[in-house]
Structures are given as structure tokens and as C-alpha cells.
Amino acid sequence: NELASVQGVKRVRGERYYRAFDDPGVISVRSVRARQRTGLTGEGVVVGVLDTGLDWSHPDFITPRIGSRVLAVLDMSESADSIATGNWLGRAGPYGGIAVYDDELRDALTGLGEIRQNDFMGHGTHVAGVAAPAELELPCTPNVMEHIIESSGIVA
Predict the structure, then answer these.
(1) Whole-structure pTM over 0.90, yes or no?
(2) Among 27, 56, 85, 101, which residue has the least CB neighbours within 10 Å?
């Protein structure tokens, strides 16, 4: 072997074959098979994310046809009193905190107000992006169907 005779080469191994993006979880839960047997596509699914928050203005959550894919945000870190003054959008949440719904999110996207909630850690935004991705570029997620992008919503 020529490579083994090159000065500085200590060892040469035989070929190994790897499968890029092979997700054993998809195989073990039989997600492709389940989708084929049930016909379920994920259309109309609402994904709930309880996490560090959500960057509701992230481009992955915005579509040209419907605007924000985020249906609602509930911020439990502040009281509704904190938005009483100023140009803040939102209202008292059903269990406390500040609730911001899709109409207010659309207003904020067009500059008609501001929303206090944000995801300073980034984890909640990441989780929502994995659960309801904007694009299907990752071959490691074959169980995510393309029409989920436009037809699903996110509640954080």
C-alpha cells in the first residue's frame, strides 16, 4: 500500500462505510411505517413548547402567506401589569403572566406595537424549530412532512 509507506504514517485502516444522517430513532419508532399505515401527515397540528421562551419574530416562524406561524405566546415571567403603559401588545394570561395571540403577533410584525416576551436563552426557539421546522433541509428528519410548514402552528 502506497499510503502506508509515506513517512509519518503510523497506521492505515481498511474502508468503513457510514450512512450520513442515519437517525436510528426514526427506525426504532418506525415513524415512516406508521405514517404510511395511518395516512397521518401532520397537517393542522399545533405544537406546544414549554421552554425558555420563543423568538416569535424569527424568520423560520414567518411565512409570506399567513404571516406568523406562532399562534400564541404565554410569558409567565412577568405580570400583565408590566404592559399597562407604553406600546406593549398582549393581555392578562388565563393563568397569570402575559398572553399574546396571533392578531397581536401580526400587529407587532408590521410595527403596530411591541411584545415584551423573548427567548434570551435561545433554547425554546431551537426546540420549536425542530418540532415545526420552516424548511426540510435535514435528511435526518424524514418523519416531518412538507405541508406541516404552512399548516401547523406553534404555541409557546
Answers:
(1) no
(2) 85
